[in-house]
Specification:
2 domains; mainly beta; CYTH domain-containing protein; 189 residues
Length: 189
């Protein structure tokens, strides 16, 4: 497990589909599990997106095995949510409003994404920029992940409001482990 901004509350170890152990890491980034017999194992854990993931591992010899559990992983291709960026037609746009507040900060930002002549543009402040394919992919990832981020527990909270026609998505992220605005900030550079 390599995790600097969020932590894994627990993971389960299965052998032949039977639960043999539940491990609660307590904020430790590495866990050493000893005395496992040779065989096929699965490790099950919950990502920060509240999705259950499973990793397979086969122990065939006496040695140290390493396995990374990515709690910030999501399989975008399996998602049923269709991002607004994939819904807008030529001549249309949608907006993303981000309000961030915490003990020592407060910020507001509005971004507009539009499509004209089958090209996508982002507008923020007084600047408009043509989006590259990797920017469009980053926006898709942002929108899909955003749908799983309704959470609390941090003194900083980011409120997101996405508006497209009569569709409205409102999400408050108080996880302190996801930086959705980071996707958009990287695009604006």
């Amino acid at each position: 497990m390599d995790n600097r901004s969020a932590y894994l509350e627990e993971f389960k170890i299965f052998r032949n589909d039977t639960l043999i152990k539940t491990v609660k890491p307590k904020h430790h980034s590495e866990q050493i599990i000893k005395d496992l017999k040779f065989g096929k194992y699965e490790i099950e854990y919950l990502t920060q997106f509240k999705k259950t993931e499973r990793k397979k591992l086969e122990l065939t010899e006496k040695k140290t095995y390493e396995i990374d559990l990515c709690i910030d992983y999501i399989n975008y291709e399996l998602e049923s949510y269709k991002p607004f960026i994939d819904r807008i037609k030529n001549g249309e746009s949608y907006s993303i409003e981000i309000n961030s507040s915490g003990c020592f900060h407060r910020s507001e930002e509005k971004i507009t994404i539009s499509r004209n002549a089958n090209k996508y543009y982002i507008r923020f402040a007084e600047t408009e920029k043509l989006l590259k394919d990797e920017d469009i992919d980053a926006i898709r990832c942002f929108e899909i992940e955003l749908n799983y981020m309704e959470s609390w527990g941090c003194t900083s909270v980011d409120d997101y409001v996405l508006k497209y026609k009569n569709n409205l998505v409102k999400i408050s992220d108080g996880s302190c482990s996801w930086n959705g605005g980071g996707y958009l900030s990287a695009i604006k550079k």
